[in-house]
Design brief:
By secondary structure, the protein is mostly beta strands. The chain is built from no helices and nine strands. The protein has one domain. Helix content is about 0%, strand content about 50%.
Length: about 130
Amino acid sequence: MVCYAIEKCKSQLLSITPSINNTNNLPSELNWSANNPPDENGFQLIVRGKIVSLDVVRSFQNYEAGSITLRNEGAMMVFSPGTYSIVFNIEGFINSNFMLGQRYSANIILEKGHDIRLENIKHVPQRA
């Protein structure tokens, strides 16, 4: 198997269920983690063999609530403890060729006073 770097990579949050405040701004770009910040244009270079993380969910106020980070709108989507299903898309360029967006689904689980988990990440095949 040959691996390549993904250049000019972006990720977008496409949907969240159940719906919460500010979801009318979707799709919206997800923040890249502060451990691997994007360039000045918001793109990330994912080097071959490197693991890069997205700040899909971050906690605040001792896990009393959570927030989805939306880079374009700047507003936080605050939600109560529970389980949320999201769909997000990752796209970029491989060897200067556009990579068709890869869509994934996952569950965000927020337990008040405990932790935040991202579980059941699955690739969502594109329809022809």
